[in-house]
Amino acid sequence: xxxxxxxxxxxxxxxxxxxxxxxxxxxxxxxxxxxxxxxxxxxxxxxxxxxxxxxxxxxxxxxxxxxxxxxxxxxxxxxxxxxxxxxxxxxxxxxxxxxxxxxxxxxxxxxxxxxxxxxxxxxxxxxxxxxxxxxxxxxxxxxxxxxxxxxxxxxxxxxxxxxxxxxxxxxxxxxxxxxxxxxxxxxxxxxxxxxxxxxxxxxxxxxxxx
Amino acid sequence: xxxxxxxxxxxxxxxxxxxxxxxxxxxxxxxxxxxxxxxxxxxxxxxxxxxxxxxxxxxxxxxxxxxxxxxxxxxxxxxxxxxxxxxxxxxxxxxxxxxxxxxxxxxxxxxxxxxxxxxxxxxxxxxxxxxxxxxxxxxxxxxxxxxxxxxxxxxxxxxxxxxxxxxxxxxxxxxxxxxxxxxxxxxxxxxxxxxxxxxxxxxxxxxxxx
Amino acid sequence: xxxxxxxxxxxxxxxxxxxxxxxxxxxxxxxxxxxxxxxxxxxxxxxxxxxxxxxxxxxxxxxxxxxxxxxxxxxxxxxxxxxxxxxxxxxxxxxxxxxxxxxxxxxxxxxxxxxxxxxxxxxxxxxxxxxxxxxxxxxxxxxxxxxxxxxxxxxxxxxxxxxxxxxxxxxxxxxxxxxxxxxxxxxxxxxxxxxxxxxxxxxxxxxxxx
Amino acid sequence: xxxxxxxxxxxxxxxxxxxxxxxxxxxxxxxxxxxxxxxxxxxxxxxxxxxxxxxxxxxxxxxxxxxxxxxxxxxxxxxxxxxxxxxxxxxxxxxxxxxxxxxxxxxxxxxxxxxxxxxxxxxxxxxxxxxxxxxxxxxxxxxxxxxxxxxxxxxxxxxxxxxxxxxxxxxxxxxxxxxxxxxxxxxxxxxxxxxxxxxxxxxxxxxxxx
DNA sequence: CATGAATGAGTCTTCATTCAT
DNA sequence: TATGAATGAAGACTCATTCAT
Lengths: 210, 210, 210, 210
Prior knowledge:
Largest sheet of chain A: none
CATH class of the largest domain in chain A: Mainly Alpha
CATH topology of the largest domain in chain A: Tetracycline Repressor, domain 2
Structural class of chain A: mainly alpha
Radius of gyration of chain A: 21 Å
Oligomer: homotetramer
CATH superfamily of the largest domain in chain A: Tetracycline Repressor, domain 2
Order of helices and strands of chain A: HHHHHHHHH
Number of strands of chain A: 0
Number of helices of chain A: 9
């Protein structure tokens, strides 16, 4: 009887979790199509084909749902980016870097809707929200900054303002991805794109003077 | 008597235009503090210390006011950026580039509020608006793209995907300025900042291998 | 379980339709008391004892509600008036006429509020509205005109400008009903009233000269 | 010096009165074009080509202006309608009646704008206003009623409910004029129209049975 | 759990009227 | 007198959230 009960409970939990996921998926689509402000709860429940009340059974508010959506994405990206190990020498370091960029691009690509939100809409809700976003971007640029400083100590990265440079790197990645995701088609292969971005950031625009 | 009349009229016009400016200034502040959506007309008239009706005496709607604010800024920036002339050789070209970056930074700095709005909030109001913004950013990246292509034909810029590179350049500038304007203080001198950004974009991160 | 579900749904629908009716009734009263313009949505929801939002759950706008109110009444009246059949000879024709007048009066009486609105307030909202009203009154006078022409061909109605006469008939009915409905009490019996109006229109004021 | 002063004063008064008239004329046009509610003070001052403040120099409020407009018209009509003298016998009485109808029609025609307002728009402003209108229409139907009673005592008017009949007469006149004034063109001659209306009201629709 | 009717605070916008010049 | 900028009360409508069934 306990077993049966557990089974029921489990099934119920699974169902519950399933509903949640459905709502998350629906709202992802709605939010990235129309933006946060233009998306109403009515839009979301229509997309998810549930009743108004049901929505509030799974999320305390529209804002909380949006927050969860963003945090999920932030967590994914953060998970893909980690410190570069210097144990393997220069080539290994560059390979790791390349891998990170590639992984980040992949995550952004597979979360097209969310990424667009993250890149342009997730601002201006309230101070609380902005803080969270700033914290995320700070963390990202800190990681880049750390990598650059490390690179300098390895004699790999040239002498420059690493903080400024980290913003440049972050900005170039954001802009390229925004253009790619909002633009018509993804013409270029993701690997090639990663190489291109890396290439730009590492070598700059100028032809090296012999 | 005509003189008197003219004087009156003129003064009235000046006062009128002054009020308009006051409202623009107030709304600039409000919008960049709270974002477009979180700013109500009530906030704006409170900041401008005018009555509700007065607002609509000068602007047909909240949206129209915002539009004017953005277009003003877009026009300023666009005015500061122009094609680079190749008549003066390499050094001249680089100088012109440096001048443009410097000018743009100056404009953004002196329009701190508006810039913040332009860089993050001006999205998601409606399709019409997004189109305008996209058009602006497209124009900017087109200009950069053109400059890069020109640079290539002059043997100055190395072989690369100029479109991709133009997004990178645009993105790095946007991100650096956003950090600078939203961040606590403007520690670094604007000239140095311009040099830093240019340096990053031109030479990249890597130490040149001899 | 399906039964239960159906039952619920059905009850909900009935409740829903009931609310709608309540709002219609309340607004009928408010509109005919204060007129369209002087009636605010606040008045209507106060009379109906519902919340602001509830109103817009059932009607898209104040104007749409008013439109529905009028169209309902127009439909009722139009339904009571139809062409007179000549199959039964003169007496039958006069009986039919008498029946129509009687039915119209009854409808107007049982829709006191709406009638008052129709007779005096339903004008000047916008061109669209005026067109609808004009169309209705045109239809009415066309029907009367047709009946008079028919009467002439039957040798029943004397030679006169039927168009002009149809307006006179329409006008006398409108005015009498307006006085009756806005006046203090309905002293006279409806049947007697119908006879009186008919009598006036058929025989005129003058004592027949022998 | 007194003379001069008086002259000035007089001229000023004349000018003042002239301005008033201009505003009245302008508002007459505006009101009858768009109706009371759809006409804003802005419309009126635009039509009169005066400043906002000037309007309130001559009229305390929009409503008061409208009231004056209507009262002026009411006075005119009331002035055209007076008790019928019985001194001259039957023919004279009918002639007088005919004259009244003719005069009323003429007044209404020459005040087309105002008449339209009076006939349909002048309702629903507030209770005060409605009272005034009711009083006017009551007076009109009282006059008719009186005439009918007199006619009965002269053996001219047949036995009928004179109150009811007076409403019928009033209504037929109102409706015919409304159609005429709002309709496309004034095809029929005013004299003929007067005869037609009178004919309808006096003899009714039916062909007299021999 | 699910539903959807009900709520009401909040938003933009209009416009008759006032008042300093 | 004449002007027109300024006012603010009032109105229509939206939408996130609640709650009885």
